[in-house]
Design goal:
This protein has 16 helices and 20 strands. The protein has helices at residues 21-25, 27-34, 65-69, 99-106, 131-139, 157-163, 177-184, 207-217, 224-234, 241-246, 260-264, 279-294, 330-333, 362-373, 393-401, 406-416; strands at 10-16, 39-45, 59-60, 74-75, 77-81, 90-95, 97-98, 118-119, 122-123, 194-198, 203-206, 252-258, 317-319, 342-355, 387-391, 419-420, 443-444, 452-456, 464-470, 482-485. α5 (131-139) crosses α7, α7 crosses α8 and α8 (207-217) crosses α12 (279-294). 43% of the residues are buried.
Length: 486
Amino acid sequence: MNQALETQPANYVLVVKKDCPTCTLIEPVIRALAGNTALSLKVYVQDDPSFPANLGGVIDDSSLEYSYQCDIEVVPTLIRLTDGNDAQSEESRIYGWDKEQWQNFTRIEDLGAELVNFKPGCGSKTQDPGMSEVLALRFGKQILQARSVELAEAEDIMEACYDRGWSDGLPVVPPTPLRVMRMLNGSERDAAEIVGKAPPDNVPCTIEKIAINAVMAGCKPEYLPVVIASVEAALQDRFCMHGLLCTTYFSSPVMVVNGPITRQIGMNSGINALGQGNRANATIGRALQLIIRNVGGGVPGGIDRANMGNPGKYTYCFAEDESDENWLSLSMDRGFERKDSVISLFAGDGLQPILDQQSRTPQSLTKSMAMSLRSVAHTKLFGIADAILVVCPEHRRVFREGGWSKEDLRKALYEELMTPGAKVIRGANDIAEGMPAKFKDKMLTKFRDDGLHIVTTGGTAGMFSAIIGGWVASGERGSQLTSQKI
């Protein structure tokens, strides 16, 4: 039997699994170490406690508790302990099989002399897909603070979510602890961090609560940073989320996402970008709505008093088409760089089409768009509602080929929309609605300064742009477009 070079006993722990060629290769080494009276060896097996065969004292670690606590990533892993047998007494470790390294580590000169010199190890079972969250729930420190809801044995889990008022009317994904843990892995933010108070009840909103609702909305973990940023934007005073929630008007949060994150998580900025079919677009927008409902208490018919609402109150989120580097994106208009990932929130209504398939000059197309923009809120109401002009790629091409920048378009639109007050005061054209009589002798602008925002999205075929009208409480006295870096 091989003898240790030093007589002082040393404590070792070896973690292996039978389903690992390297572990089966070193069976003779394991037996030699186990039979060496100059050292103490404990063997933990992740999958089959009968391995190694005919070796007594093997410890079954099929629960992976020991492997998790010791942060085992590769098997075999050999750990030398200074004192005791727990992870806190670890002195050093090696993994895989390297003959010379093992001989030096154990101080046994001819250990494994008959084996090959080197063979890499295998992944620990703790590294199996999805296992990190499972083990964190079983054996890690308490991360989740939300209360647990126990369901009756015969209770349908999907119906239970409806019955408890967690749904926006569509099915939600049940937020099990495992799903929430996996969602939290999408961000490095601490689960207990409070990002602000969610209206209308001003309830502290933590990263964990955001993650729970992101799960229910159907988000992937990689969407979580965008969802968090949407909440941070919504809770800024300038966005006025509480007022937007309480209004009887149609508006709800509209989300425009810019930057590399849109490509990383697969957001849609092309065909049907404002429609169904893209998971990221659909679920990120839905997550914010669920957070306001489930955390803040904003329930339709309660504090949410929208007269009609609009379908965007389910979800209203899309990415901007940034393929033309000579055309500034919305986030760049707000002072960010093209490399930044940014989400912008706008208090907006439904979608109003602009059909113009004939204009081939910037001047003609601008006049055409201005005519449609006059109808935001009402053709006789000026300066009370902001708007987003959604320029399709083909219309953007008309401007670019005509030598116009986005700023050229914006200035031209403001000029086209200037209107004598006498034409839009109350009673003019036999219409009672309109601007107060005090504006009769003034020139009025349809949108306040910084009240008209321009974005590009949509397919490359079809000369159809659109307008997202804003809340009639836009501007300094109400909601303003708010951007948050992701």
